[in-house]
Amino acid sequence: MEITVKAKQLDIGDALRGHVESCLTEGVTKYFENALDATVTFSREAHSFRADISVHPGRGLMVKGGGMGGDAYVAFDSALERIAKQLRRYKRRLRNHHKGGEREDEIMAQYAIIQPEPEEKEVEEDAQPAIIAEMPHHVSTLSVSEAVMRMDLADAPAMMFRNSAHGGLNVVYRRADGNIGWIDPPGADA
Length: 190
Hints:
Strand order of the largest sheet: 5-6-7-8-9
Distance between the termini: 38 Å
CATH superfamily of the largest domain: Ribosome hibernation promotion factor-like
Strand content: 35-45%
Oligomer: single chain
């Protein structure tokens, strides 16, 4: 597994880098022996440290977790504990969903988020820049429960997928009240 350790506005020593590599390798390979890569990012927030871990344990799966602490070691250990808990919770479900090495169908999709420019061209003092994000994204064929699981593992607010029951495009998302919403538009059958 390839591990990348980054730091934002602080220096990390060889001891911390070694601690991250050994603990992360041990923690992830306990659940996924052939994990692809992981990224650990350290940052300083006020009087504490923050560690964000992103692990890519397999094709189409991303697990993210973060932790805070009085020093970088405590922050990393807290984030790793969260990652390990997620991997432990979902290992059995992932095995059941992917038994026999079946490949899931994927299609490519692109989406863009564009904020329209106001009619007036005057520049205000508090003017915000236009929000533009365009990213290619694989749309996997999944069951609704597997889509929810992957959304939780990726710590994402929403996930688009092709419903394995009827082949139509669906979206699951986390609602403001903490529950999961599911959009299955009529006529979405393939």
